[in-house]
Amino acid sequence: MQRFLVTCALIASLVLASQAQDRDGPALPIILDQADSIVGSGPIATGTREFVGHVRFTQGNVTVECDRAIHNVASNSVELFSNVKIQQQGLVLLAPYVTYSGTTNIAVAPRGVTVRDKQSTIQSRYATYSTTTHIVVFRDSVLARDSAQLWADTLVYDRDADTTVATGRVMIVDTMQHLVTKSAYAFRDPALKIMRLRGDAHVWQWSEPSEATKAGDTLYLNADRITSKTDEGGTSYLAETSVAMTRGNVAARCDSLLANRAAGRTDLFGHPVVWSDSMQLHADTIVASGEADQLRSVVGRGSAILVSQSDSVRTDRYDQIAGSVVSLAIEQDTIRNLEAVGDAQSITFRTEDEQAEGLAKVASDTIRVLFDNGQLTDVVWLGGVEGEHHPEPVVAGKAETYRLPQFRWRTDRPRARPLPQAPVVRLRK
After folding, report:
1. How far apart, in Å, do the first and last CA atoms of the chain sit?
2. Is the whole model's pTM more than 0.85, yes or no?
3. pLDDT of res. 21
């Protein structure tokens, strides 16, 4: 009865003349539900009230609990101390200290905070929460956990849209998807299963060891922008601008890339080049295909050329095979055979007992090549064959002049980066 009488006596002073409005109605008052003791000072309309012990008050569907609170009537605000707990429609905010404005309906936690909502738990050193827009902004040492873990400098969580935007040293680890990412910016929409990375974006995705290889396989992807989407067809990646990729013994660069590991297909566009062993494939577009995480073929279309530097002593000599389409068959990350179709041409340098023996230059409708351990062994020319042999005395010192029109050679082969270590987050106590 005494608590009831105290509460009734203070209702008038605790109903704040808030100018903020809830999304669905007019301004809502802040109402004290309970407190063990109350100390007031100053006029009722402009003074302060201190509440100590089991403090609880509400504003609409927002419930606030703490050990101690100071209510400034004039500024329409409350300071909350020790074991602060704010709840709204499933969201729970925990912090040692919070300021809450009845005018803006914004809670500020400047000394560390933990927010739980649905299946997510997010921690940071600083956060703000709007009870009207339902947007939480986390800053400094952010760590979010749901089906994955996310680290960032800043994270904006929109409860209504169920999306997050992370910026500054963003890292995501998803062990269920065998996925790790790093970037300067990340947008996640769990409902649509979409993630967008920007700013020197990196993706590592690995597979479990297979029966065939007894080992796993890791895809490494780096680009200015990477977008991933997961559906019944698996996870697909769209990488744009300065794209680099490695997978086993194969590497690639291009302007844009579209990959789906479940479908076993990767399309490369915009000056693509694929490295395998000592060979490079250049074309207008390149498609890599496989199954069960094993690369089976690589096809270059449009001004396609395969270039190999097979002579480690005479580094100015390149074997070259070109055509409208160049197809490679691959087993265990090693090229087994090749076929060039459409205005096919080849230049192959010959050696005998490690002695240079000149070169053969041939044009035909189709060229088929066999490899052994990555080294060219047999070449077959089919249809409209025209060829010429250049003896070593003619070739010596002039090897760089024997280039097909499509010839290109790049030395910027990408290398896979090791998986990064997860950041260590230390929150204020």
Report:
1. 38
2. no
3. 42
Query: What is each CA distance from 69 to 22, 87, 122, 368, in whole angstroms?
Result: 23, 16, 25, 82
**Residue 381 phi, psi (nearest 5):** -110, 135
List the structure tokens of 121.
């738990």
Cβ-proximal residues to 199 (8 Å cutoff; 6+ apart), any chain: 183, 184, 185, 224
H and E: helices and strands count for the chain? 2, 28
Q: Report the alpha-carbon angle 343-344-349, nearest 5.
A: 145
Q: What are phi and psi of 5, to 5 degrees?
A: -65, -40
Q: Which CATH number fits domain 1-118+128-135: 2.60.450, 3.40.50, 3.60.21, 3.30.1380?
A: 2.60.450
Task: State the Cα–Cα distance between residues 73 and 76, nearest whole angstrom.
Answer: 5
Reported confidence tier of residue 134, pLDDT bands at 50, 70, 90: very high
Query: Which of 403, 407, 321, 328 has its CA nearest to residue 364?
Result: 321
Which homologous superfamily does the CATH classification assign to the domain defined by 272-410?
Lipopolysaccharide (LPS) transport protein A like domain (2.60.450.10)
Residue where the block lists tokens 């209504």: 160
Rounded distance between C-alpha atoms, residue 110 and residue 428, angstroms: 10
Nearest to 95 by CA among 108, 112, 70: 112
- Cite the beta strand spans of 309-417 per DSSP E: 319-331, 334-352, 355-372, 375-382, 386-390
Q: Which tokens is 89 given?
A: 């429609």
DSSP code string of 192-227: TTEEEEEEEEEEEEE-PPPTTTSS--EEEEEEEEEE
Q: How far apart are CA 339 and CA 327, in angstroms?
A: 5
The whole-angstrom separation of Cα 24 and Cα 47 is 30
For the chain, give every residue range classified as CATH 2.60.450.10.
272-410
Q: Among residues 266, 264, 260, 270, which one has the least CA distance to residue 224? A: 270
Residue 216 pLDDT > 70, yes or no? no
- Find the length of the chain: 429
C-alpha torsion 262→302→241→194, nearest 10: -30
pLDDT at 277: 78
